[in-house]
């Protein structure tokens, strides 16, 4: 059941030249209800059942609330990171344009919860966000004492937006100010030779992830060093294949972590896992 997804893609979706499915979501839903009429609406409810219909409404309300909180966060820090940005109309670097997922901003509370599984001090580590989108995760990571923070993004428009955000961002809690973003296909990115925290928020399909994971393993084999992988997913059940793939390399062990609590600033429930490189004997 997807009333809000049934409306045509119009100017409601356009924000700053980007196709944003979060913008005007409530307005589109109300318009769809008006357009289909009460009879068709009740037919949908009968078809999906009261529980299914209630779940659909709850999911959309959660998305609307989370998006409003994301916009508030952006206004507070003078940036533009909110939205559900579609990739079809963007300028993509590399051959994997059809294998990327939409750009969504990371929930601050969810990100901080995932970071609890890492060491208290991260001085000397480089944080790499693979599929950095509009840079929300890079900005959130600057709360921690990383030596450097690097984003990898293959869409030119998102890279340009990220550069503006990094230049404008202000927060009294910021500890790392060495932020940058690289316009590149993730499969061609060379990981820094420092200790690493590598973050994925379901940025692409398994085909691309396997190639990037292979590059990570090759980099660690060439220069052994500490490395964490944080993989989060709120759609496509990506964690169900990402976790076994990471463990199957034989190079990583899973770090204990609690289940993600419910946070209003998250569009969907986030499932995640954290892994640490196994130190050679």
**Largest sheet entry:** 7 strands, mixed
Element pattern in H and E: HEEHEEHEHEHEEHEHEE
Number of helices: 7
The CATH class name of the largest domain reads: Alpha Beta
**Per CATH, which architecture of the largest domain?**
3-Layer(aba) Sandwich
Bin the helical content.
Answer: 25-40%
Task: List how many beta strands DSSP finds.
Answer: 11
Tell me the number of structural domains: 2
Average pLDDT: 85
Unreliable spans: 1-14
CATH superfamily of the largest domain: Vaccinia Virus protein VP39
According to CATH, what is the topology of the largest domain? Answer: Rossmann fold
- Beta-strand portion reads 15-25%
Lateral strand order in the biggest sheet: 7-6-5-8-9-11-10
Q: Which outline best applies?
A: globular
Question: Care to describe what's here?
Answer:
The protein is an alpha/beta fold and 281 residues long. It folds into two domains: 75 residues, no CATH class; 181 residues, Vaccinia Virus protein VP39 (Rossmann fold, 3-Layer(aba) Sandwich). Helix content is 40%, strand content 17%. The chain has seven helices and eleven strands. It has a seven-stranded mixed sheet with strand order 7-6-5-8-9-11-10, with helices on both faces. Strands 1-2 form a two-stranded antiparallel ribbon. Helix 6 links the parallel strand 8 and strand 9. Helix 6 packs parallel to helix 7. The longest helix is centred in the first third of the chain and has 53 residues. The protein is globular and about 65 Å long. It starts with a helix and ends with a strand.
């Amino acid at each position: 059941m997807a009333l809000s997804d049934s409306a045509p893609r119009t100017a409601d979706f356009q924000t700053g030249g980007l196709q944003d499915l979060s913008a005007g979501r409530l307005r589109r839903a109300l318009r769809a209800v008006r357009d289909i009429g009460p009879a068709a609406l009740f037919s949908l409810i009968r078809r999906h059942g009261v529980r299914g219909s209630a779940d659909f409404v709850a999911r959309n309300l959660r998305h609307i609330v989370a998006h409003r909180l994301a916009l508030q966060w952006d206004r507070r820090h003078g940036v533009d990171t909110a939205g559900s940005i579609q990739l079809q109309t963007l300028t993509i670097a590399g051959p994997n344009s059809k294998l990327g997922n939409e750009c969504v901003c990371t929930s601050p509370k969810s990100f901080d919860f995932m970071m609890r599984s890492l060491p208290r001090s991260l001085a000397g580590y480089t944080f790499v966000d693979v599929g950095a989108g509009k840079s929300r995760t890079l900005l959130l990571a600057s709360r921690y004492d990383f030596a450097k923070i690097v984003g990898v993004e293959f869409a030119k428009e998102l890279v340009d937006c990220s550069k503006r955000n990094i230049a404008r961002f202000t927060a009294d809690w910021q500890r790392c100010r060495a932020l940058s973003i690289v316009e590149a296909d993730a499969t061609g990115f060379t990981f820094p030779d420092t200790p690493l925290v590598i973050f994925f928020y379901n940025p692409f399909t398994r085909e691309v992830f396997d190639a990037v994971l292979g590059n990570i393993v090759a980099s660690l084999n060439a220069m052994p060093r500490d490395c964490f992988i944080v993989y989060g997913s709120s759609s496509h059940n990506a964690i169900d294949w990402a976790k076994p793939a990471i463990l199957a390399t034989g190079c990583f062990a899973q770090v204990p972590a609690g289940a993600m609590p419910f946070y209003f600033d998250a569009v969907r429930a986030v499932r995640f896992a954290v892994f640490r490189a196994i130190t050679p004997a």
